[in-house]
Amino acid sequence: MPETRADLLVEALPYIKNYRGSTLVIKYGGHAMVEEGLRDRFAQDVSLLRFVGINPVVVHGGGPQIDELLNRLKIDFRFVDGQRVTDEATMEVVEMVLCGRLGKDIVGRITRAGGQAVGLSGKDAGLIRAVRKRLPKAREENSPPEMIDIGLVGQPSSVNVGLLNHLTAGGFIPVIAPVGVDEAGVTYNINADTVASAVAVALSASKLILLTDVPGVLGDDGALIERLGESQMAELRRRGAISGGMLPKLDCCLSAIKGGCRGASIIDGRVPHALLLELFTDHGCGTEVVA
User: Fold this and answer.
1) Tens-place pLDDT, residues 136-188
2) Sheet holding 286-289, edge to edge
3) For 225-258, what is each residue's pLDDT tens digit?
4) What is the spatial distance between Cα 108 and Cα 103, in angstroms, rounded to a whole number?
5) Across 268-286, average pLDDT
6) What number of CA atoms fall less than 13 Å from residue 84's CA on the CB side?
7) Which of the residue ranges 70-79, 89-98, 230-239 would you say has the lowest mean pLDDT?
8) Could you write out the DSSP letters of every residue in 177-212?
9) What's the half-sphere exposure (Cβ side, CA atoms, 13 Å) at 70?
10) Residues 215, 217, 218, 223, CA torsion sign
11) Quick check: helix, strand or coil at residue 207?
12) 20-214+244-276 classified as CATH 3.40.1160.10
């Protein structure tokens, strides 16, 4: 047993050396954010990354927790193409959950694990500037698409890199709630994967990591694809082998890589210490996306 543990440390050494001094952007959500034991393990993983000289930046989601509070408050809500339609009442709840309860919980757990975390929303120091997002709805052939207004839903237009660099240089772990603001001060709810991708590009991060509730990207035979290129991705899309919620995650990964982020992975957040397995072992813990 001691030899086995020592072997794991030796296996991790070249990866630690490779990532030391670099920035990793981690989108935290799904089952890993709900199950108590996994929440503490995630906090330990992020703290360990900082202790070995890596700069983690966390962007967290919180869809199920938002749904729970909306139901408790008897506020109706709906989705269009997977996007939450966000009116003013819903936006208030989004901020309460993401910027308050969840952000503070993640910061507290990282702090108890020994790290120094700072909770932020996109409104702090103009961290995430946003523009209003509208969804295109397909119409008849050769007709322009109809644009659907889904309320206070935004997409990032810029990221205050100086603030994040200042925090990471001081040894802090930024924990970002995906809420943005436009030039007029209007607050927007933004998809957490999209924010994580934008932050990874802005920071020229070494890696973008998305935690999910599946092992990674699966092929036609249901087997995990450990390394996925753009042409293979297009073929799997064409055949319908990948669909649903995995499609926007892959788009975020590709967007990050094409924007200057050096790598992206989709990993299984249900696996204890998935982050460490992905970063510091030969086999990883999900699918690596390459351009």
Assistant:
1) 765 556 656 667 889 999 999 999 999 999 999 999 999 999 999 999 999 99
2) 117-121, 173-177, 55-60, 23-28, 207-212, 264-268, 286-289, 227-228
3) 999 988 888 888 888 888 788 888 999 999 999 9
4) 9
5) 91
6) 25
7) 230-239
8) ESEEE-TT--EEE--HHHHHHHHHHHHT-SEEEEEE
9) 23
10) negative
11) strand
12) yes
Strands 207-212 and 117-121: unpaired
| Alpha-carbon gap, residue 261 to 24, rounded angstroms | 9
- 22: exposed, middle or buried (C-beta count within 10 Å: 0-12, 13-18, 19+)? middle
Q: Which two tokens stand for residue 280?
A: 């510091």
Give the span between the Cα atoms of 163 and 47, in whole angstroms. 20
- The gap from C-alpha 207 to its chain's centroid, in whole angstroms, comes to 12
What tokens appear for 215 in the block? 């092992």
**Residue 29 in tokens:** 């959500």
Question: What is the CA angle 258-263-267, rounded to 5?
Answer: 120
Cα–Cα distance between 144 and 99 in angstroms, integer?
38
